[in-house]
Specification:
Elements: E1 3-20, E2 25-38, E3 43-48, H1 52-55, H2 59-74, H3 82-91, H4 97-115, H5 119-122, E4 129-131, E5 134-136, H6 141-153, E6 158-162, H7 170-181, E7 186-190, H8 197-209, E8 216-218, H9 226-235, E9 240-242, H10 249-258, E10 263-266, H11 268-271, H12 274-287, E11 291-294, H13 300-312, E12 316-320, H14 323-326, E13 332-334, E14 337-339, E15 342-344, E16 353-355, H15 356-364
Parallel strand pairs: 5-6, 6-7, 7-8, 8-9, 9-10, 10-11, 11-12
Antiparallel strand pairs: 1-2, 2-3, 4-15, 13-16, 14-15
Length: 365
């Protein structure tokens, strides 16, 4: 099964509510769809969001990377030669991890289709259902409390609370959320690099002293400041999750060696796709460090690929795969079922997902 074409297009989906973090505010998903076609007429699909504050990529740079560098390098490559094809993909251009991720997941989609199995079973198949949190954007304490109650009303039992914008309000934000949702809802706090190490220790200790019972705090300091994050981890009781600090297996090892985090957050858009994510999983397994799988502002396509990874690997014990839950519509058919906080894996081959406009075209033929 040889690659005969790779194409890109764009699509947009409005969000239910604006997505606000310490890094940016977004009102709609506007992502790149990648379609990989093979000589037997199969199609594999991938998705890449432009997340310039984190990966440095834009819509234009993603499409350029795929069309002008990755496509020429991969044409004629055999899908069955997965390692060789992935080597070519990841050496066709430096960086551009989201562009690579979209092509990577499309190739894995095709590879699992060829074998006739859902991708998660190919990756280990340890789970058939996942539970995800839902992100609460950073706003006033009162608005965040109201948004949290709405999320709980939708069935979510784990909330990921964005902070780091106006750090002086962050303790009040988490206090308001905890008071609104009660003690049984798990709370994860994500600072998106918004605190200094000293601020992080002060704010997290304040939350601990207030009895707010946090599941974890994600990326409290700048991504490159592993010494600062290790300082935070040594001086608080709450678990620390490394996110923006971990793009590669080399980064993962550095975080572990520094003692900078209790958990690693794997995102396909940082790792360049499933191939790189599996390398991080291997290091985490060897070091006994459990992982979370997260997502950027992605639709059900890219989040489906991340869900297959999470369902396939035992070392992944947490899921932050709320992209579909943030969207006001779903432009795809099939794949895992996203039932608010529950993700139920599909049993049809590959990712099992299809753009709606492709399905409608096939029905007309």
């Amino acid at each position: 099964m040889k690659i005969t074409d790779i194409r890109t297009s764009e699509f947009s989906v409005p969000l239910r509510t604006p997505f606000k973090t310490a890094l940016r505010t977004v009102t709609a998903i506007h992502d790149v769809l990648v379609t990989v076609t093979t000589d037997d007429g199969r199609h594999g699909y991938g998705e890449a969001p432009p997340t310039a504050p984190i990966t440095g990529e834009t819509i234009g740079s993603i499409r350029c990377a795929v069309e002008e560098f990755i496509r020429p390098a991969l044409l004629g490559r055999e899908i069955e030669d997965l390692d060789g094809t992935m080597h070519v993909l990841h050496t066709a251009i430096l960086h551009n991890t989201s562009a690579k991720a979209a092509v990577d997941m499309a190739i894995y989609d095709l590879y699992a289709q060829e074998l006739g199995v859902p991708l998660y079973r190919l990756l280990g198949g340890s789970k058939t259902e996942l539970e995800t949190d839902l992100t609460i954007s950073v706003n006033s304490p009162e608005e965040m409390a109201a948004d949290s109650l709405t999320a709980v009303g939708r069935g979510f039992r784990i909330l990921k609370i964005k902070v780091g914008l106006q750090p002086e309000l962050d303790l009040a934000r988490i206090q308001a959320v905890r008071k609104a949702v009660g003690p049984k809802i798990a709370i994860r706090v994500d600072a998106n690099q918004g605190w200094s190490p000293a601020q992080a220790v002060r704010i997290i200790r304040g939350m601990e002293d207030a009895g707010l019972t946090l599941d974890l705090v994600e990326q409290p300091v700048k991504a490159a400041d592993l010494d600062g994050m290790a300082y935070v981890r040594r001086n608080v009781s709450t678990s620390i999750l490394a996110d923006e600090s971990v793009f590669s297996s080399v980064d993962a090892m550095a975080v572990i060696q520094k003692g900078a985090a209790d958990f690693l957050n794997i995102k396909l858009m940082k790792t360049g796709g499933i191939y790189g994510a599996l390398q991080i999983c291997s290091i985490a397994e060897s070091c006994g460090v459990t992982c979370m799988v997260g997502c950027m502002l992605e639709s059900s396509l890219a989040v489906s690929a991340a869900a297959h990874l999470a369902a396939g690997k035992r070392i992944i014990t947490r899921a932050d795969l709320d992209g579909p839950g943030l969207c006001s519509a779903n432009p795809y058919l099939g794949g895992p079922q996203f039932l608010e906080n529950r993700i139920i894996m599909n049993e049809n081959p590959g990712l099992g997902i299809l753009p709606k406009w492709v399905d409608e075209t096939e029905k007309m033929q």
